[in-house]
Design goal:
Helix content: 25-40%
Number of domains: 1
Shape: globular
Number of helices: 5
CATH topology: Aminopeptidase
Radius of gyration: 16 Å
Number of strands: 8
Structural class: alpha+beta
Distance between the termini: 33 Å
Order of helices and strands: EEHHEEEHEHEEH
CATH class: Alpha Beta
Length: 183
């Protein structure tokens, strides 16, 4: 099986390895990191399950999900995960998402990785539209999506029950022609 790797100036986005679960668990159990997520804080078993699912998706033919371990080019430290998942009902569209260890927030890593995922989607995969969602109070994530050239398309009111509270979701998207104009 061919392992996939995407490079940026400071990062390597690479296919997960089974042993990555320990570094993923460093942030997946942090209540502050998962505050806006429908999952977490994770148990060891839940984190191992996530990595196992990422490994399973690497073997799919054709590949429809690209879940990457985000590592620092300098030293190889795993600092988070970022993924692009093709919509099975509309295969020229996909969503992107990411989650990072809190020690590496506010350093531009999310934007750098997300831009590389857009390049993968619109370049190598030939997609038409890429979208993402985030909690309406997750200003950091919304800022990343805007910096990547996405526009806000929607604000869904109390559409997700997360950790016992109804939460609002923001929807962002970018079309291939918008992406190409931004280059």
């Amino acid at each position: 099986m061919h392992k996939m790797q995407l490079d940026t100036d400071r990062l390597v986005l690479r296919d997960f390895k089974a042993t990555d679960w320990k570094e993923v668990h460093e942030y997946a159990l942090d209540p502050e990191v998962v505050k806006f997520m429908i999952w977490g804080p994770n148990t060891v078993e839940e984190t191992q399950y996530f990595v196992d699912m990422a490994l399973d998706k690497q073997r799919e033919k054709p590949r429809r999900a690209y879940e990457f371990a985000v590592t620092l080019k300098d030293g190889g430290k795993l600092i988070g995960a970022a993924g692009l998942r093709i919509n099975p009902d509309e295969p020229l569209t996909a969503d992107v998402g990411y989650c990072y260890n809190r020690k590496f927030w506010r350093q531009g890593y999310s934007t750098e990785a997300c831009l590389r995922l857009l390049e993968l989607g619109f370049g190598e995969l030939g997609l038409h539209r890429i979208w993402a969602t985030c909690d309406s109070e997750n200003l950091g994530s919304a800022g990343v999506l805007l910096k990547c050239g996405m526009r806000q398309e929607g604000h869904f009111v109390q559409d997700k029950l997360i950790k016992g509270h109804w939460r609002d979701t923001l929807l962002f998207a970018i079309l291939r022609e918008e992406y190409e104009r931004s280059l």
